[in-house]
Write a structure and sequence with these properties.
GO terms for molecular function: rRNA (guanine-N7-)-methyltransferase activity. Pfam families: GidB. It comes from Prunus yedoensis var. nudiflora. Keywords: Cytoplasm, Methyltransferase, rRNA processing, S-adenosyl-L-methionine, Transferase. This is Ribosomal RNA small subunit methyltransferase G-like. The chain is an alpha/beta fold. The chain has a 6-stranded mixed β-sheet, sandwiched between helices. The chain is built from 7 helices and 6 strands. It has helices at about 10-20, 25-35, 55-60, 75-85, 110-120, 135-150, 190-195, and strands at about 45-50, 65-70, 100-105, 120-130, 150-160, 170-175. Strand 1 (about 45-50), helix 3 and strand 2 form a beta-alpha-beta unit. Helix content is about 35%, strand content about 25%. It has a single domain (about 10-195), classed as Vaccinia Virus protein VP39 (Rossmann fold).
Length: about 200
């Protein structure tokens, strides 16, 4: 269905699968340390901007105790994800405002925009984890105000070793400390045009 530019199996494994798996330790460790220690094996997670199912489908397969919801706006990708979920017997889940323990996003948008997409979905006490490149400090600094407005704070930047050609990546972990104001997220397209 031509969902990614990568066609070679080895490159898909290195660039996409291993990169998606690399964020599992930061999710588990952060959730154990800062959220609910008893439930890190049974998380309710949403993958915002799932695309070809990265990282959501990979996480659903690798962590079968997690309830993973895939969120995607493009119909072609939704059809693919629905078909693949049925083939893999992963089922379907409904998403609700502030109902997820964890929201993840990989290769969707810059942090200010991602925060507005993801944090309204995370329950108070939950995590937003963004998979970014090896040097995201400036992007994170630029997003701190938006993250705060949306009811969270940056908890930590976790270097993760990906075996993809891109090497070291960073999992940016944010802790949701208060409810997101009801006016967020704004209408589709607005977060990209005028980020917080």
């Amino acid at each position: 269905m031509n969902l990614t530019a990568v066609k070679e199996v080895k490159e898909v494994m290195e660039r996409h699968i291993e990169d998606s798996l690399a964020i599992i330790p930061p999710i588990r460790n952060s959730h154990l340390s800062h959220c609910s220690p008893s439930s890190s094996n049974n998380l309710c997670l949403v993958d915002v901007g799932s695309g070809a199912g990265l990282p959501g489908l990979v996480l659903a397969i690798a962590c079968p105790g997690w309830e993973v919801t895939l969120m995607e706006s493009m119909n072609k990708r939704c059809l693919f994800l629905g078909m693949l979920s049925v083939i893999l017997n992963l089922g379907q889940a409904l998403c609700f405002r502030e109902k997820f323990d964890v929201a993840v996003a990989r290769a969707v948008a810059e942090m200010r925009v991602l925060a507005e997409y993801c944090l309204p979905l995370v329950c108070v006490g939950g995590l937003f984890v963004a998979a970014k490149g090896h040097d995201p400090e400036v992007e994170v600094r630029n997003a701190e105000k938006a993250i705060q407005i949306l009811g969270a704070s940056v908890l930590q930047l976790c270097p993760v070793e990906s075996h993809s050609p891109y090497g070291q990546r960073t999992a940016i972990v944010c802790l949701k400390t208060s409810p997101t104001p009801r006016k967020y997220p704004r209408d589709p397209g607005t977060p990209e045009k005028t980020p917080l």
